[in-house]
Automatic annotation (TrEMBL):
It comes from Neomesorhizobium albiziae. It holds the Pfam family BPD_transp_1. Belongs to the binding-protein-dependent transport system permease family. The keyword Transport applies. This is Glucose/mannose transport system permease protein. Residues 73-288 form the ABC transmembrane type-1 domain. The chain crosses the membrane at residues 21-43, 76-98, 110-130, 159-184, 205-230, 269-289. Keywords: Cell membrane, Membrane, Transmembrane, Transmembrane helix, Transport. Its main location: membrane. It is a multi-pass membrane protein. It comes from the Bacteria.
Length: 295
């Protein structure tokens, strides 16, 4: 590129670049500034109010010595891995079915997407009633004569996180379906025709041709799902409040409890920093592999 060409590209769309300056400055102050502030104060002994009295890594030592924090990390890992797998699989299967130009497609699409319009609090309360052993699924089945039937995941410490995951899947799978359906509708019809002419079974067409072509859609969906997993809070509060005991504790709830109820800002900041670090460890290598090797 010549030196004369560079300035012309630099001043291209100048009005748009100038207009974006306030947004860029706001993002830097709010996100970068807030993140830096949180990390710095995680090394202090801040209680009710933040104070710059540094204690080194004491807050992090207390954090990782806390069984409550360990349980929250384990729960988030279980919820995250299973949610990613089931959301992608179920969402893609639903999208593939709707892509067959079935009757009442608009109605089915609306039904599947409708739960996403509800807040997590409403979803959590609805599924708290559905999974209630007295008048939920267990109560209904026992009322039909199966007295030995047991289904109370929200009241069983060993499987409570799976009960929360059911509600999360019910709400979020519809959005995944719509994203996948949009990706499927973007596949050229000639590809389907060529696959049929060559006698390739439909499942092989999806597995070896369509899914690789939908890689950008899968990446976008993965980012959306992952962002919802990391900030998991509302469903837990609405369904179990973190119980039984601390069996359904998650990192976001741990941060909230220590920052606003236990009045221990230093511990809350340390937990927030660890959440940020976890996301960075996952996202930064992925972003580099995805975009860093390209121009």
């Amino acid at each position: 590129m010549s030196a004369a060409t560079r300035p012309s590209k630099l001043f291209k769309n100048l009005n748009a670049k100038i207009a974006s300056i306030p947004m860029i400055l706001t993002a830097l102050c709010v996100f970068v500034g807030g993140t830096t502030w949180t990390v710095v104060y995680s090394f202090t002994d801040s209680k009710l109010l933040p104070r710059l009295r540094f204690v080194g890594i004491e807050q992090y030592e207390r954090l990782w010595a806390s069984q409550r924090w360990i349980v929250s990390i384990e729960n988030l890992a279980i919820y995250g891995i299973l949610s990613l797998v089931f959301s992608l699989v179920i969402g893609f299967l639903l999208a593939a079915l709707l892509d067959q130009k079935i009757r009442f497609e608009d109605t089915f699409r609306t039904i599947f997407l409708y739960p996403f319009a509800l807040s997590f609090i409403v979803t959590g309360l609805v599924w708290q009633w559905i999974l209630n052993p007295q008048f939920g699924v267990q109560g209904i089945v026992r009322g039909l004569g199966w007295e030995s039937f047991s289904f109370d995941p929200l009241y069983n410490a060993d499987i409570v996180i799976y009960g929360i995951m059911i509600a999360g899947l019910w709400q979020g799978t519809g959005l995944v379906m719509c994203l996948m359906l949009a990706g499927l509708r973007g596949i050229d019809e000639d590809i389907w025709k060529a696959a049929r002419v060559d006698g390739i079974p439909m499942w092989k067409t999806y597995l070896f041709i369509v899914i690789p072509m939908m890689r950008p859609v899968f990446i976008t969906t993965l980012v959306i799902i992952a962002s919802g997993i990391v900030k998991l809070y509302d469903l837990v509060v609405a369904q179990t409040g973190g119980g039984p005991g601390n069996a359904s504790e998650v990192p976001a709830k741990y941060v909230y409890e220590f920052m606003f109820r236990a009045q221990n800002l230093g511990q809350g900041f340390a937990a927030s920093t660890m959440m940020l670090l976890t996301v960075a460890i996952i996202v930064v290598p992925w972003a580099y592999l995805e975009f860093g090797r390209r121009r």
